[in-house]
Design goal:
By secondary structure, this protein is an alpha+beta fold. It has one domain (4-116): RutC-like (60s Ribosomal Protein L30, Chain: A, 2-Layer Sandwich). The protein has two helices and six strands. Helix 1 (38-55) runs parallel beside helix 2.
Length: 117
Amino acid sequence: MTEITHIDPNARMSAAVVHGNVAYLAGQVALGAPGGSVTEQTKDIIERLEATLAKAGTDKSRLLSASIWLSDISTFDEMNVVWDEWVKDVTAPARATVESKLAAPQFTVEIALIAAI
């Protein structure tokens, strides 16, 4: 049986779950930039995701998939400026981006990742 590792779990969820050679990262919002611009929020989220990837023993070069939620799809290009800069030195993962109402109005971006270990 393959071991399951939970990274930074709390009563509701884990920041990531590792099973086999795959890390599943929970959706992250910009806790360090609530109410900030989409650019600021995307940068904050990426920093949080990079830290979680490292805890899982992987990095952005091993990304398999990304799911991105925007509270306003008109900010798609603004978010992509930050995203494109982040993935410019690696092969970009499969990705979906959709407009969705997020859990709290001060958050306008949420990103979840899946990465190989």
